[in-house]
Amino acid sequence: MSTLGESPAVLAKRKHVKNNIWCPKTNVEDDPWCDPDNPKMISYKDTVKATSVIKEHIAKTPLNRSKCCVQFNMELYYKFETVHRTGSFLERAALYSLSMLDDEQRAAGVITASLGNWGLALAYHGQRLNVPVTVVIPYTDKCKVILRYQNYGANIIQHGKDLSEAIRKAFIIKSERQNLTYINGYDHPHVIAASGSIALEILEQLPQTDVVLVPVGGGGLIAGIATVAKKLKPEIKIYGIEPKKCCSFFKAMENDNPFQTVVGATVAELLAVPKAGFNAFYTARSLIDKMVLVEDNWISRAILHLTEEEKMVTEGAGATALSAFFATPIILPELKGKTVVCVVSGGNTDYFTLCRNIERAKAIEGRLIKMRLTLICETASHEHACVVKRIMDSMFLDYKFSEDPYNPIQSCVCFPNPMLY
Amino acid sequence: MSVDIEFDENCDPNNPRKIKYDDILAASRRIVGAVVRTPCTRAHMSERLGMDIYFKQEFLQYTGSFKERGVRNALISLSDEQKKNGVIAASTGNHGAALSYHSTQLGIPCIVVVPIHTALNKVNKCEQLGAKVFKHGIDMSAAKLHAMSLGKEKKMIYINGYDHPDVLAGQGSIGIEIIEQLPNVDAVLIPVGGGSLLTGIGISVKHLKPDTEIYGVETDKTCSMVESLRKNERIHLDIDSTIAEGLAVNVVGTNTFYNIKGLVDKIVVVKEDWVARAIMHIVEEERFVVEGAGAVAVAAIMAGLFPNLKGKKVVCIISGGNIDVTILARALERGMAAEGRLVKFKVTVHDRPGGMAELCTLLTNSGITIRDCVPERAWVKGDVFSAQVKVIAETRGWEHTKELIEQIKKHYKDYFFQEICDRPDRPSVGTRRGPCLAPNPVCMQK
Lengths: 421, 446
Hints:
- The structure holds two protein chains of two kinds.
- By secondary structure, chain A is of the alpha/beta class.
- In chain A, 40% of the residues lie in helices and 15% in strands.
- Chain A has 16 helices and 13 strands.
- Chain A has helices at 8-13, 44-54, 69-72, 90-99, 103-108, 117-129, 143-151, 163-176, 189-205, 220-232, 248-255, 278-284, 296-308, 316-323, 351-364, 382-395; strands at 63-65, 75-80, 110-113, 133-137, 155-158, 181-182, 211-215, 237-243, 290-294, 339-344, 369-374, 399-401, 408-414.
- In chain A, α2 (44-54) packs across α9, α4 crosses α9 (189-205) and α10 (220-232) packs parallel to α12.
- The two termini of chain A are 41 Å apart.
- A six-stranded mixed sheet of chain B has the order 1-2-10-7-8-9, with helices on both faces.
- In chain B, α1 (21-30) packs across α8 (165-181).
- Chain B is elongated, with a radius of gyration of 25 Å.
- Mean pLDDT of chain B is 83; it is low at 420-446.
- The interface between A and B is large, with 38 and 40 residues.
- Chain B: GO terms for molecular function: L-serine ammonia-lyase activity; threonine deaminase activity.
């Protein structure tokens, strides 16, 4: 179903929300680039322009064949966007949107709200192009993130528990300092156009692509890729993969309009965008062939697979596209034997998250089991028992003594032979 | 007349083979198409380390390591009868996997003998790639002995993974690729186990661009080549467990030892802790998963062992990526601890409602992340109402850790900080994150 949109006459008569005297609420979140009443559709030409601007500074990212094509029963390729300096594809968008600012805007600075990757990319390129950058991120427990922002000289503010609150705060700051430019990381037309450059590269490197799997957060990436891919090769299929716990784009497709959703905590934390982007939705809704929802467990397994087999470190969001193939039961049987490209969008994960995902994936695959052993030790005296306990303390993290210290029950983790798929 | 089991005609100490550049050129032609021509890309950590570092990404090969090149060349060069009988090898993993993969591709029967304590995933890998795997021996020497006797029995050719002349020629193809991809390279840093990479790349690079500096890197636990060169004869080194398993070769190869003289500018030895830190930095900054052996070159640069290369174009050979994920996790943890970003300490708090909450609030307000917080009630000196809480926390660096210690000192009387770095003699490089690590800034004993 596709409409021609509102007629120009209707649009001309549309009045903006008037300030009611009784409720003088001003809409703080007023972004001229991402107006819900006036969504912009990105065209192929915009993408080509974006590509030519960023080509000098950003090298083509590798498109590697998977080592496990036989296992997956298809010609699987990965587009690794993890090799960028700040570790995600958003560098392309950051460079392009900053390049498109005029000198006055550059001197004044930009502000944005981000879950992590977008702000980092903007900070890095802002430092290179001498543009002051302010980033508002939701409260995070990751020390490393703050450190990285500081390394790139960005002004960082933590506020709010999810992206919506951070966006709101960013707009409040912008209303106080009028000359800042707000750049939406998943919906700004320049961001979408620059993301399309990935599709240009994919089709150059692998013209015989049948399907492209794209992770979806706010929708910027898939909008850009879909625009280009469908223009260059109309029979190509574009699938959007979203985590079940934060499926704002999926819900927007169902509802035919983006709306505010509640996002849960998920492995793919950088896709936790509560409200899908308007421009992205408008651009992509008739171009996406299928939206797929995936469980967190499958994402963990995908992270483990990419670490072990392809030797690449990815974050949850990056592994989301591949996770569709780790679903049980199989959810995409129609892809057997086809040439499939998974976009691995980013690799910014910290040590704890990575280890926890790996452990969880191993447990799911049956490669990690937990055993409880009861050891009955006879000790010479109370002091001896204390010594034994101290030894246990240093050897095993997780153990319990029952009431008397003469019957310790240890619980340790062991690694049996891996389960064959 | 008893035949010496250990006698391998290709690696005879009395008749060492000289490898020529022509052999390497021929090898590189033979393996084209079957082996990945790996990219040599600039590293993001170049600025931080003060030189132009390029990574030759050999972990992108199908079995995850560079060994495929030598193996493919050796297999193609066998006579028809030798191909029918099959090949055998003793290997800790990478060579075995490469041999299994290519012999299956070429239709040659293959047996791999591994030491008993080899990691599970390596054994399974060889089996899945089509070889028969036998487990024998506590270390490589014992496994090798068994493999050679088995080989003589079944008339299979023993392919030495680091000493067979065809294998050496195959590894040299990396050198040709480096010069093609980066014509003005200044130095190449190569991990050294048995010496095949060093020899092969050394010969090819020195032939094509004689002013390039060739450096070998070993860890302090696997320094068989350094010791051998020092004593001017091949010595046997006992190797315990090491993070760089790919370099754990007890005796270096005959042919490699013979060919190396005059080729290598220097071989350096780096401590194992630096290897763990290098793995962590590569994971964080480059987002590649590398094994210990693959990270030693970067570790040597990070440890400040190459001050003469500042500002130069340096290629590090990332020889492989086959690391067990458990060991990866441990290496990351070690790396974090060595950088001062992981702190372990014990504090005695009041065991009343709010006691632990107070501690946690204090920690959170300092901006650190608590990863583990385990209370222990009995076996604590002091009054019955106190509990000792063991905390594992993540900080931003040494400075932040020092602040944390100040905070704890102010609010609590009874605390104990784990010794994090206990090697005051280690040379350190001033990283952007903080001052030198040598004197223990966080070691406090109660």
